[in-house]
Give the backbone structure.
Amino acid sequence: MAQKWFASRFFCRIFSGVCLLAAVLAASGPLSARAQDSPSTQQPDKKSDKKADPAPDQPADQNPSDTTPPSESGGPGGDVGPYIVPKKKGEAPPPPPPSKPKKIEGMPDYSIRVDVPLVNVDVLVTTKDGQFVPGLKKENFRIFEDGVDQKVTNFNQSEAPITAVMLIEFASTNYSYLRDALNSSYTFASQLKKDDWVAVVEYDMRTHILVDFTQDKREVMEALNTLRIPGFSERNLFDALYETLDRLEGTEGGRKYVILVASGQDTFSKINYDTILKKVKATQNVTIYPVSIGRALRERADARGAVGPIANLDFLQADNQMNTFARMTGGKAYFPRFDGELPEIFHDIGTSIRNQYSLGYRPTNAKSDGTYRKLKVELIAPDGGPLKIRDQRGKDVKVNIVAREGYTAKHVVD
């Protein structure tokens, strides 16, 4: 009985092994067929990281079906194909992308922007005879701010309309002064064009607006005709000029001008000379053209010995003040000796205003510290040397460059 039981157990084990082998063969046969029929649908086993054993004739680290070129060949990899693009000799690999700073949770994003204001400088270039020099280009100008060369970014030259204030001294001092003032004002008003904007202000002890900005030449002439009988002898030049500059700062538009028809003397102003100089320095885009009155009367009185040392010193100081206002703002002061010079003077002023070169730059000193910065303008040739201007006969002509001496930077309080 024991032998029969052992034999039956032996045959059962053989039969179970045969059945198990048949089941494995039945399962593996159709799967292999599907893998051969549709290789693109075969999915890799993601759970297994083991690689098949290499063939005897292949290196251990190379797959015979892998067409990816080696990394040192410089060719594309992945599923692109076995195309190799050779590298240039000595070509360095691209730098890694810059690492971004880690953002701290709860901290807002900040961006810093520095706005550098545009500085505009009007430049008048004339010959020694006062003739305007046309045809200059941006490359012919060089601007220095506190000795540092600046890059000119904006450039323009055209006949622009005038936006001006006629500031006229009208005080009961002497009839010759009044006649000079009126003749000068009439001469300027007669040369206005239809697109010009002009206001008329007269002053003695106070300022009086005769006509606000207008383009009607008849209104300007009518306003001047009201100047008949002066009321006071005081000539508060500093107060009048300070108030006029204040009003111009609040006026829209680009360049603005003050045609100052005055003796240059100040008798009773509330502010002093230093205060008006600071105001002139701080005012941008305003050019002052002073026209002196009473020069002929002064010279005749001086020739007769009627002008003493103190009075003569006062006259010299008045002329110096007029020159300073013009020089600081890029204008020009005129001192006519007789009425026949007035038409030519105001024609020169009109030509200077309408034919200036407008330059603009953004200063390298971007600080808004309210400091005064000196300007210097030069003419240069294409080779960097001084620009030479020649007349029709080929002779060198000396030129005058008229521009403001400086400007005051904006003051921003932190």
Remarks:
- The mean pLDDT is 77.
